[in-house]
Amino acid sequence: MITLTLYSRPDCHLCEIMSRDLEPLVQGRAQVTIVDISENDELERRYGQRIPVLAAGADELSCYRLDVARVERFLTNAAM
């Protein structure tokens, strides 16, 4: 199964929205791991105020707002 990573931090309204909107999009197609960047200095430097960031490995699929079309394309291509 495909694994996506959602870089986030506690009490982040945009992070909560992206997580909520992502759930039905990936259901049965991918697993989402949520990573709290506030627990890691390197991730905090990399993502800082750009969260939430949705990534598939090194590829960033969405930043701030969920890019539904891009995630859909990624999931469709990954399933082929």
What features would you describe in this structure?
It is a single chain. The protein is α+β, with helices and mostly antiparallel strands and 80 residues long. It has a single domain, classed as 3-Layer(aba) Sandwich (Glutaredoxin). The chain is 41% helix and 29% strand. It has 3 helices and 4 strands; from the N terminus they run E-H-E-H-E-E-H. It has helices at 13-26, 41-47, 68-79; strands at 2-8, 30-36, 53-56, 59-63. Strands 2-1-3-4 form a 4-stranded mixed β-sheet, with helices on one face. The chain is globular and about 35 Å long.
Defining traits:
alpha+beta, 4 strands, globular, 80 residues, 3 helices, Glutaredoxin, four-stranded mixed beta sheet
Give a topology summary.
Elements: E1 2-8, H1 13-26, E2 30-36, H2 41-47, E3 53-56, E4 59-63, H3 68-79
Parallel strand pairs: 1-2
Antiparallel strand pairs: 1-3, 3-4
Brief account:
By secondary structure, the chain is an alpha+beta fold. The chain has helices at residues 13-26, 41-47, 68-79; strands spanning 2-8, 30-36, 53-56, 59-63. It has a single domain (2-79), classed as Glutaredoxin (3-Layer(aba) Sandwich).
